[in-house]
Amino acid sequence: MEQKSLTTILAEKLGLDPAQNTDTRYQKLDTLLKVTSDDELTRFINKNLPPVRTNDKQELLTHFQKYLRTYFSEEILKYYEKSFTNRAAQVNHCKTRISFYKETLQKQQHSDMCYEYFHVILEELSLIERSISRAKSDDMTEVPPQSQVTATTTRRTAVPPPERLQTPIEQTVFGLNFDFIGKLYDNLLIEGFVNESSTKEIFLQHFFVDTVPETRIILHGRSQSDIGYLIDSLREFFKGDYQHDSTLFNTFWAERFMFQTNGDAQIPKIKDKTGISRIVSSAKRDDRKSTKERIINQIVENLKAVPQ
Fold first, then answer.
1. Would you give the DSSP letter of residue 172?
2. pTM over 0.85
3. Is 7 or 290 the better-scoring residue by pLDDT?
4. What is the pLDDT of residues 91-126, one digit of tens each?
5. Hey, which bits of the chain come out as E strands?
6. 24-33 and 112-133 are packed helices; what angle lies between their axes, rounded to 10 degrees?
7. What's the rounded Cα separation, in Å, for the pair 106 and 205?
8. CA distance 210 to 53
9. Which residues contact 220 (CB under 8 A, 6 or more apart)?
10. How far from chain centre, in Å, is Cα 50?
11. CA 147 to CA 154: how far, in whole Å?
């Protein structure tokens, strides 16, 4: 059996990644994974969270989730954007620790006051778990197990596998906020802008920056102005160039969506980036106002409540 170094043993005892035992992101995650009781949670919140002047429970929970997203989730996910060897082992290492924490937490009894805070922690850990699961390693060489080495082999020098290529976590046009996309889907489904034939998982796939699915999602509206107003209203949530570059923004919608209105005889239409620009511009004209303006404005307000 391979002998572990003292550094590796200490790192494992501390719950850190053996390959990155000094990484502050893992130390932060380790801090969070130690919070299992109501008293520990209260101390954690009092020690770490900036004060907020509100007694509203939902606002306090949102404040807590924003803190975790900024100082835990996003920091840990930044680590997985960097190149390192043995990516699969590190992904499994992190997922195993999170799974163990979830199992431990399920055995605990929590007060009504703390229960929802622990639920927020589990949501953030699930985000981390889903995101790092998308990190894949390219193993170009596998060393066969000893049992597969034939008896005629007298000596073989192990060739270390080449360094794995960096595979960054796929970014969406909304950054790494997968919860936001889920909430967007729920709102569009309820208001009839999409139907159940486009599942939430399919819907998610259409927002990754570097992947254009072969099948477009159909957006429904009474008129083109409904669709144009919806598209324009969602612009503020897009990241970086997508928000500020109209060509990039319009191309995104043109490549991934089809559009069906009551006047289309149930036949979805494909539009190029110029067509998208036209329906957005048309929706802003007084004589072409969207009939669903109030509904779309409410969707926007619902989305603003999702922690960024």
1. B
2. no
3. 290
4. 777 777 888 888 888 788 888 778 888 888 888 888
5. 217-221, 257-261
6. 140
7. 31
8. 41
9. 192, 193, 194, 195, 260, 261
10. 24
11. 14
